[in-house]
């Protein structure tokens, strides 16, 4: 347990857990608590968090709208790499944590706090993501992680503490919630309780951001997304800011049952966990961006990017957003996007994202070369003979050795 803490900045949602943490910090450390609540597009009213903090006597309360910052500086850079963790997960929770931590540290500097605190448990990835970010940004900061310190080891004890310290408890919080939810503008994540058995399908009540594909319209929705330098800038010709653009894609994806994922993943701390993710706008964006790259990126540049992506995804998932290796990879990825400009047309239909066309002023696709008709000498097919023989040389030598009894 940290000692001599005078002022701490708490990542505060206003929910039961962080409200208990707020009071616990005040009573255990006898310190001043500064609350920070981030609006990342989670779709909840945040003013109740401010009022609750005021009720606890908090004098410095920060409620910041970070939606555009979140999408512009975190989500879009990640999507330039077509990032998927373990081939499927679009990292909606992972990418939000470094921004929250960054703003916490900024506030700590502003108000002269000597510590920061979060509400992540000792079993999950978020504790790692928050704390790696804290230390990368402020190496000498004191970190308080109540779930690893206190003796409130059961929900009964948590509720008893809340009642003892007159912390309001919503009626639905007195019973066991059927699952937990984390949400932001990129996605919603549901896990725990009724979702812990991976053999059982999730009930429809779990889904927060999408209608079921079966309930989606029988007519496809057709859209066009414009890119400049690898980032989306417009939908159907309408220029939109980062947060507004992702929100619009979310609406389109929701209405067409797009972006559901039932995943068993490997947590950084060692265990496997099952999560239900909904990333409607991100699923559309990934398909569009990959197709924009398909005509604008050189083959070897694209393949190099794809080979590095799993490592890049793992860095974000594990909490190393502010690491030197992530920054190095980001520089390479961003350089690759200079020519990724143009328009992609898509159909959205019953859970599917169907690309119907792509065009770019920087397109490397040349109809003169690929045509099955006369190409006017753009490509000499005789050249392929030498190309094939050179590439076959090692195969022929290896096969010859094999026939002599050696190892091919």
TrEMBL record:
Highest rank taxon of the organism: Bacteria
Record has Amino-acid biosynthesis as a keyword: yes
Residues reported to bind ATP: 11-19, 38, 119
Predominant cellular place of this UniProt entry's protein: cytoplasm
Chain positions recorded as L-aspartate binding sites: 121, 125-126
Enzyme class: ligase
Involved pathway(s): Amino-acid biosynthesis; L-arginine biosynthesis; L-arginine from L-ornithine and carbamoyl phosphate: step 2/3
Complexes and interactors: Homotetramer.
Name of protein: Argininosuccinate synthase
Lineage summary: Bacteria, Pseudomonadati, Pseudomonadota, Alphaproteobacteria, Acetobacterales
């Amino acid at each position: 347990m940290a000692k001599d803490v005078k002022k701490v900045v708490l990542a505060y949602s206003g929910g039961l857990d962080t409200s208990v943490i707020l009071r616990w910090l005040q009573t255990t450390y006898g310190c001043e608590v500064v609350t920070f609540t981030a609006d990342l597009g989670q779709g909840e009213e945040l003013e109740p968090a401010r009022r609750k903090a005021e009720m606890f006597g908090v004098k410095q309360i920060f409620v910041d709208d970070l939606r555009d910052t979140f999408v512009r500086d975190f989500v879009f850079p990640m999507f330039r790499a077509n990032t998927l963790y373990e081939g499927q997960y679009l990292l909606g929770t992972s990418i939000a944590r470094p921004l929250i931590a960054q703003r916490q540290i900024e506030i700590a500097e502003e108000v002269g706090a000597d510590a920061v605190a979060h509400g992540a448990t000792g079993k999950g990835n978020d504790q790692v993501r928050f704390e790696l970010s804290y230390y990368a940004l402020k190496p000498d900061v004191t970190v308080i992680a109540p779930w690893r310190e206190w003796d409130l080891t059961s929900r009964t004890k948590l509720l008893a503490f809340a009642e003892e310290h007159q912390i309001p408890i919503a009626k639905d919080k007195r019973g066991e919630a059927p699952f937990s939810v984390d949400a932001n503008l990129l996605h919603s994540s549901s896990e725990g309780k009724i979702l812990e058995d991976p053999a059982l399908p999730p009930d429809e009540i779990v889904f927060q951001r999408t209608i079921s594909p079966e309930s989606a319209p029988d007519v496809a929705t057709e859209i066009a997304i414009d890119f400049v330098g690898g980032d989306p800038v417009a939908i159907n010709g309408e220029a939109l800011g980062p947060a507004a653009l992702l929100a619009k894609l979310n609406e389109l994806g929701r209405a067409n049952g797009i972006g559901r994922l039932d995943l068993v993943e490997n947590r950084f701390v060692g265990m496997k966990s099952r999560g239900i993710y909904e990333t409607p706008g991100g699923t559309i964006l990934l398909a569009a961006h990959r197709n924009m790259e398909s005509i604008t990126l050189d083959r070897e540049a694209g393949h190099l990017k794809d080979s590095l992506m799993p490592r890049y995804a793992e860095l974000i998932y594990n909490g190393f957003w502010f690491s030197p290796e992530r920054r190095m990879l980001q520089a390479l990825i961003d350089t690759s996007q200079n020519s990724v400009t143009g328009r992609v047309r898509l159909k959205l239909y019953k859970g599917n994202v169907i690309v119907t066309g792509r065009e770019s002023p920087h397109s490397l696709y040349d109809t003169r070369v690929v045509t099955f008709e006369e190409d006017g000498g753009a490509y000499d097919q005789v050249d392929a003979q030498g190309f094939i023989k050179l590439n076959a040389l090692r195969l022929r030598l290896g096969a010859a050795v094999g026939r002599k009894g050696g190892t091919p």
